[in-house]
Amino acid sequence: MLDTKEIQCFVACAQTGSFSKAAEKLFTTQSSVSKIVKTMEEKTGSLLFERMAKGIRMTPEAEKMYPYAISVLENLKQIQMLDEKRTADILSVSCNPSSWFADHFVKFYEQKQGEELHYHVHSADCREIVERVRKRTDELGFVYIMKNQAAAFQYYVTRNYLEFTPLKETAATIYYGGGCSDSGNSLDFSKLKLIQRFPDEFSPDNYWNIVDSNGRTASDAEIVITTNSDYIMERLLQSGNLANISGGYLSGKPQQEISKGKTCLASDTRILFGYVKRKGEELSKPANDFLRFLISSLSC
């Protein structure tokens, strides 16, 4: 039977495609990783990784094992979370990458510093957020979705025994970077170089129906960088010649200037911000407190 250490090693090797990178991830040595993999192959009676000139590759046998290994590690994480709950309340939430959400999570944390409360906060796309709430990894998931996708998203979450509650509607906004030449009031997508997040079918990164004054759509713009990092996004917008299409700041003003350029409303494209929770279940006190805090902040 495989132990937890072996399963963790197997997953790290599969995800990194390298014994040395897996060793770095696990804070151990390459020789130790190689020995563990060899032991696993002896136990399972199967070759798990093909050794190549540059890195390793899973064999068909390993590919069959991989989803089960991931499930084991996720279940162990859930057990650890239950153990933590014996000593402190936990707020587990996920969200689309959002400067507004980050700013207000920090404010909530500062308010609650005197309480015995722990936090699990995960940034993800809409589909992963739905899956995390469905699996009870997170209690609440906060998403931005295109308004024209609201019916499809509601159907999707309902099929997963969840419910989606919209909290606020905002307009799609173009944030021009500090060095962006097209930062005036006229919008010309053919001149625009974009930095965008990885989209899914519900996310606000699907702005291709926006039309400029010349009849060009957002698909005429050049996507130079695709990233899931808010830090990279904000650094490049502060000084670069890139622009970003995303939702407007939901309330108040950002704590830090996201972009040195101007913002321009992108036609009448609308975005809904809201939350996903398990259908028919009451929220824990930390989750309920956080939700009420965000709702209050949205009205400011």
From TrEMBL:
The keyword Transcription applies. Belongs to the LysR transcriptional regulatory family. It holds the Pfam family HTH_1. This is HTH-type transcriptional regulator YofA. It comes from the Bacteria. The lineage of its organism: Bacteria, Bacillati, Bacillota, Clostridia, Lachnospirales. The keyword Amino-acid biosynthesis does not apply. Residues 2-59 form the HTH lysR-type domain. Signal peptide: none annotated. Keywords: DNA-binding, Transcription, Transcription regulation. It comes from Blautia glucerasea. Coiled coil: none annotated. PROSITE patterns: HTH_LYSR. One of its GO terms (molecular function) is transcription cis-regulatory region binding.
